[in-house]
């Protein structure tokens, strides 16, 4: 296994193989098997209506894989990929698998302060971007900054106008060796809690199980037409079941450039979309939009909602507004996925965040001492299983805190388990804000704020919000004159912080409330801002 990754202990690995969760195949079979079984069915539809069959996508991926090899990329090398929901993302994803090159999947919203540390940590040899986004942001400018800052980044590939960089490389397909299924296939990003990014290694066989089993539990079939409304690089839209699950089932993937009701409803109507996955604020937006938009959404059978808590009240309105079934998904890029089942009673679909995907998922709910709570009580969710990581990449110290000695991942989520095994997410103990599904590590934002000359101390907490679930409040203790929110956000943008991480509100205090041991009491600050 790649140096810097933590393998599963052999005893568990043998169990996961014996029980059939790990099949010894590489993730790429999702495309090769599809191409062999139903090559002429449509696999991929772009927003502009361009479409590729499974066979065409397979051929495209082979040409790109050969191109990557001829561009000098070697198996095991890492490449940071930051693309919007364009067809190139899908073809390139499989090309990386074939070439054995490991994509590190960044989100389009990330900026210098995220991408530079990612390239450093992964020692990326290349960086893939689009030319610009719809708002005119130029990723090539970001690429220039990244290349200057990180010498390991030898090459930049651009989808669109390459400027001084290279277009995506293609070449006549060449035979390539199959990867070891127990090896890392890709890296996902964690929402994180600390000041530095954390990379999640996902192996071929664990991610293959992840996509196939999710597809099965969500009822995906060859008739599934899945709308990618969230960023394709996010674990939810990628493999829970996401675009990989749709491909695994022989279905069709439809790419939406953004999750707005305008864009999504038009695509749902045009492509007769059957299933979409969204975060709660988008679900609220879509439900409201049905009142004044008149696209035909009758093809939509299932709306998956996850990434942040979807409250029971809006959850109970999905069927009456959008005319489809609701599936709650409580997942994490680290692994464990929970789904409400399609045949669950409405009560469970509306009031719970689902139950674990796999019979071999081990879930513990523990108190502050790490002891299991009484059944039905709430506590921290710990988990291990055949598709849950055993350690972040090159993060030994952090791993010692994030995992128990038995290899359980400490999720930082506070849950309550029902007798049926369904989990209700009740809160969080990790130092993170969940802003409508987008995760903001408090410490990271605090470090940026502390760099401001007028900031003496900073503490970032979530404040309740009807639509987003939470928004971000930055408490500051200042030197001299207090900066305004505008000044602070301009300062953070200048440092290359992604827009979703910018604080929504600023509160200046003379000093921070402290806990009994003298730490800043975020609980007291959160209470203060909740009013
Ligand atoms: P990440 O580690 O960045 O992949 O984010 C995963 C985290 O998102 C989980 O640990 C939860 O804190 C949160 N999350 C995901 N889905 C849900 C959900 N359905 N309800 C509540 N929180 C969720
Ligand atoms: O929030 C998440 O990270 C998430 C939510 C739903 C996720 O990774 C997933 C499903 O796979």
What does this structure look like?
This protein is an alpha/beta fold. 32% of the residues lie in helices and 25% in strands. The protein has a 9-stranded mixed sheet, sandwiched between helices. Strands 4-3-5-6-7 form a 5-stranded parallel sheet, with helices on both faces. α2 (29-38) packs antiparallel against α3 (54-70) and α7 (204-217) packs across α9 (242-248). The site of adenosine monophosphate has 21 residues, from β14, β19 and β20. 2,3-dihydroxy-benzoic acid is lined by residues 235-236, 240, 306-307, 329, 331-333, 337, 437.
Give keywords:
25% strand, 25 strands, ATP-dep_AMP-bd_enzyme, alpha/beta, (2,3-dihydroxybenzoyl)adenylate synthase, binds adenosine monophosphate, 531 residues, AMP-bd_C_sf, binds 2,3-dihydroxy-benzoic acid, 32% helix, nine-stranded mixed sheet
Chain-wise SSE layout:
Layout: H1 10-18, H2 29-38, E1 42-45, E2 51-53, H3 54-70, E3 78-82, H4 87-99, E4 102-105, H5 112-122, E5 126-130, H6 139-149, E6 155-159, E7 166-167, E8 184-189, E9 199-203, H7 204-217, E10 225-228, H8 235-239, H9 242-248, E11 252-255, H10 261-271, E12 275-278, H11 280-289, E13 302-306, H12 312-315, H13 318-322, E14 325-332, E15 335-339, H14 346-351, E16 355-356, E17 362-366, E18 378-384, H15 396-402, E19 409-417, E20 423-428, E21 432-435, E22 438-441, H16 442-450, E23 455-465, E24 469-478, H17 485-494, E25 505-508, H18 522-530
Parallel strand pairs: 1-11, 3-4, 3-5, 5-6, 6-7, 10-11, 10-12, 12-13, 13-14, 24-25
Antiparallel strand pairs: 1-2, 8-9, 14-15, 15-16, 17-18, 18-19, 19-20, 21-22, 23-24
The structure holds adenosine monophosphate and 2,3-dihydroxy-benzoic acid.
